[in-house]
């Protein structure tokens, strides 16, 4: 049996690749003819399929179905499609496949139809001035759409134009631009504009150009320099903080950069530091200003040496140059200056009470304008108490009236006045001086006992003492410490009383022996510590009270409350008022009886103090003391009402018949009211109460004002036996008059 070998394809049906040039203009153009050996010619139908035929792009290729000729129907662009792969088919007239489909590959041959393209139209680069040759700046590269495997895309770079210096070169293959020579100087050429070309076909084909802009970066290779060696300026004296003028400099480096910014220094001619110089940030010039006020009379000209340099140090590669120096001459113009008080404030001390017209000081000013003849005049600008007078030409200050202390115009013992000094220039200038006058204290006041009265328990020890105080209108050191002592004119006081120091302003008065109850007047001598000390003898009005169990005073209110439980506060006040008035009415009898007692017993305890029963002669005795400050408001008649009592002179009219005394405490109010009516209608009695007011217990008393109760009754008409029923506080009255 004969084996069947592999099937052999006929050569006529195997189609090799077909090449066709892009941009072929002869259309239609025969590319190839395909044929099949299966049948006679005319008995085969040919067709092709694929991109360019029945796929996009359509209609580029076609075939004659009877002859098998393949035609190109449109121009080809290799940059769009570099080859086409088609399928060829052979069928008989009945549509039966005669051959297997075969491949038909059409290759588009490249033509140099695309110029090179730079990636950008303008390339920008930077390099520092003075860069070494071979320093690369940037790369200007291009592309070519033609076949990279052919010379159509083989690019070469070159610099067409860069000026005459030829400072840069370009790599022909890569397009990298680098420095070619030394000597790049920004101050000479700051920007280089290069025209760069790219050409295909290895430099012989199509070309294109671009621009390469190269900026030179500045370095500090140029020091600042003054525009001239000398500058002249003027400034008024006494002007501080003002600009005098400018010194001008020039720097070739980049304006506004740290390499350009100048720094100025005053080297010589200003040891006092009267001037300062700073840099104008916009112009880079030096601005000279006055740091301290200038005085034309002291110095009218300055010659300054000023240097300048950059904020940044020079580059080592910069050429060496000496430091830039300039001379600045400043003339100080003379102007009118205000007078000056060299001592301001002026402090002086004056004793209080100096007589008017006493010179206390001469307060004058000086005129700084020594080269101008001017006259100064003076005036008091501020003298709140109008104490001073001032000589307008000599400046002598005198007292206009006594300087007294204390005063509302003193501040901590100081009196402040302002003096105005004015020159006669045009326009005139003035200055104000402060005159501080210390009013020195003079010891012209003796200490005053405060308070002048008190209550003390009549038993030695606890409760038998009283704290005494004093005040002094003088200021230290003329006041405290105060010295309290018993009057040296009454040595017998030492038997019953002692005084010991408590502190610098107070002392303690103590009872040495047990004293009977009653009022006492104790003469004391008070002395201050001023140089020289002043002293004053004063009376201390004491009320010796009955001592309670705890050593404190058991006053009349407490005693009455203890003796008569259930008595109201109003009734209790009425009882106390009645008792005081009764004591006043029987003054004559008490005086006679006491005189008899004093004659019988000179060793009585009260014999060692002043006679205490002289308390004034009533309303007709106006020389003893003024009782009005001691009157409580409740006992004074209202200002809008006329007094109820008539100020009629005393007469010898016979007193009315005695009234019946109250039998019980509840009848005391009616008894007092009847007595008031009788006293108000009696023209023979003084206009006010004859009882001396010993103390003021405060306003708002619930008791009505008391008048001269039973003032029309005589001592013989009174029966005092009932006093023994009023409690222990009235026991002594009952013993004397009961």
UniProtKB/TrEMBL annotation:
SMART domains: CA
Transmembrane segments: 557-584
Gene Ontology, cellular component aspect: adherens junction; catenin complex; cell surface
Classification via SUPFAM superfamilies: Cadherin-like
InterPro entries assigned to the protein according to its UniProt record, in alphabetical order: Cadherin (IPR039808), Cadherin-like_dom (IPR002126), Cadherin-like_sf (IPR015919), Cadherin_CS (IPR020894), Cadherin_Y-type_LIR (IPR000233), Catenin-bd_sf (IPR027397)
Domain of life from the UniProt record: Eukaryota
Biased composition (Pro residues): 630-640
Places the protein is found: Cell membrane
Membrane topology: Single-pass type I membrane protein
Main location: membrane
Protein's job: Cadherins are calcium-dependent cell adhesion proteins. They preferentially interact with themselves in a homophilic manner in connecting cells; cadherins may thus contribute to the sorting of heterogeneous cell types. M-cadherin is part of the myogenic program and may provide a trigger for terminal muscle differentiation.
Single biological process term from Gene Ontology: adherens junction organization
Gene name for this UniProt entry: Cdh15
Name of the featured protein: Cadherin-15
Signal peptide extent: none
Organism: Calonectris borealis
Keyword entries, A-Z: Calcium, Cell adhesion, Cell membrane, Cleavage on pair of basic residues, Glycoprotein, Membrane, Metal-binding, Repeat, Signal, Transmembrane, Transmembrane helix
Gene3D superfamilies named in the record: Cadherins, TCF3-CBD (Catenin binding domain)
Domain Cadherin: 12-118, 119-226, 236-341, 342-449
Region of interest (Disordered), residue spans: 609-668
């Amino acid at each position: 049996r004969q084996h069947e070998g592999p099937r052999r394809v006929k050569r006529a049906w195997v189609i090799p690749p077909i090449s066709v040039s892009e941009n072929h203009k002869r259309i239609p153009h025969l590319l190839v003819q395909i044929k099949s050996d299966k049948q006679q010619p005319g008995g085969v139908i040919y067709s092709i399929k694929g991109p360019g035929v029945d796929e996009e792009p359509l209609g580029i290729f076609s075939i004659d179905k009877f002859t098998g000729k393949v035609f190109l129907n449109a121009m080809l662009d290799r940059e769009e499609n570099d080859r086409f792969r088609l399928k060829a088919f052979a069928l008989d007239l009945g549509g039966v496949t005669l051959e297997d489909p075969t491949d038909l590959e059409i290759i588009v041959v490249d033509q140099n139809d695309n110029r090179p393209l730079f990636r950008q139209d303008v390339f920008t680069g930077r390099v520092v001035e003075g860069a070494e040759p071979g320093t690369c700046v940037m790369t200007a590269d291009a592309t070519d759409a033609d076949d990279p495997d052919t010379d159509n895309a083989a690019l070469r770079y070159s610099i067409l134009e860069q000026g005459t210096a030829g400072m840069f070169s370009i790599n022909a293959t890569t397009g990298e631009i680098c420095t070619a020579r030394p000597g790049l100087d920004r101050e000479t050429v700051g920007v280089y504009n290069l025209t760069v070309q790219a050409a295909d076909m290895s430099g012989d084909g199509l070309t294109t150009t671009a621009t390469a802009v190269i900026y030179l970066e500045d370095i500090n290779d140029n020091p600042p320099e003054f525009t001239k060696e000398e500058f002249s300026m003027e400034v008024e004296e006494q002007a501080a903080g003002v600009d005098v003028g400018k010194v001008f400099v020039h720097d070739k480096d980049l304006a506004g950069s740290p390499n350009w910014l100048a720094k100025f220094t005053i080297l010589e001619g200003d040891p006092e530091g009267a001037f300062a110089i700073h840099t104008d940030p916009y112009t880079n010039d030096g601005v000279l200003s006055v740091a301290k006020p200038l005085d034309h009379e002291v110095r009218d000209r300055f010659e300054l040496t000023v240097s300048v340099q950059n904020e940044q140090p020079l580059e080592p590669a910069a050429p060496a140059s000496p430091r830039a120096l300039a001379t600045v001459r400043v003339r100080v113009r003379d102007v009118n200056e205000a007078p000056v008080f060299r001592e301001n404030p002026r402090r002086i001390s004056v004793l209080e009470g100096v007589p008017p017209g006493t010179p206390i000081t001469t307060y004058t000013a000086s005129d700084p304008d020594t080269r101008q003849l001017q006259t100064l005049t003076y005036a008091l600008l501020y003298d709140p108490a109008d104490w001073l007078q001032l000589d307008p030409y000599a400046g002598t200050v005198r007292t206009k009236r006594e300087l007294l202390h204390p005063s509302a115009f003193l501040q901590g013992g100081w009196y402040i006045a302002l003096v105005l000094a004015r020159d006669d220039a045009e326009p005139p200038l003035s200055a104000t001086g402060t005159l501080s006058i210390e009013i020195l204290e003079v010891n012209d006041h003796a200490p005053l006992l405060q308070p002048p009265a008190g209550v003390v328990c009549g038993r030695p020890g606890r409760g038998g003492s009283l704290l005494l105080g004093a005040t002094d209108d003088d200021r230290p050191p003329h006041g405290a410490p105060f010295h309290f002592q018993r009057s040296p004119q009454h040595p017998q006081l030492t038997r019953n009383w002692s005084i010991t120091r408590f502190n610098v302003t107070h002392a303690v008065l103590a009872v040495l022996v047990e004293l009977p109850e009653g009022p006492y007047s104790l003469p004391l001598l008070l002395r201050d510590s001023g140089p020289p000390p002043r002293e004053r003898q004063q009376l201390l009005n004491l009320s010796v009270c009955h001592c309670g169990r705890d050593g404190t005073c058991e006053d009349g209110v407490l005693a009455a409350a203890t003796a008569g439980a259930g008595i109201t506060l109003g009734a209790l006040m009425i009882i106390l008022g009645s008792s005081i008035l009764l004591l006043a009415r029987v003054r004559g009898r008490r005086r006679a009886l006491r005189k008899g007692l004093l004659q019988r017993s000179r060793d009585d305890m009260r014999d060692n103090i002043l006679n205490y029963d002289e308390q004034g002669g009533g309303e007709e005795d106006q020389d003893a003391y003024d009782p009005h400050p001691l009157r409580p408001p409740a006992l004074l008649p209202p200002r809008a009402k006329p007094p109820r009592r008539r100020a009629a002179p005393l007469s010898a009219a016979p007193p009315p018949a005695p009234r019946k005394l109250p039998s019980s405490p509840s009848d005391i109010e009616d008894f007092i009211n009847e007595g008031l009516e009788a006293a108000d209608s009696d023209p023979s009695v003084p206009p006010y109460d004859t009882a001396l007011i010993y103390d003021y217990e405060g306003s708002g008393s619930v008791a009505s004002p008391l008048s001269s109760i039973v003032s029309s009754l005589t001592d013989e008409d009174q029966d005092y036996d009932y006093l023994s029923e009023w409690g222990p506080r009235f026991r002594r009255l009952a013993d004397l008059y009961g």
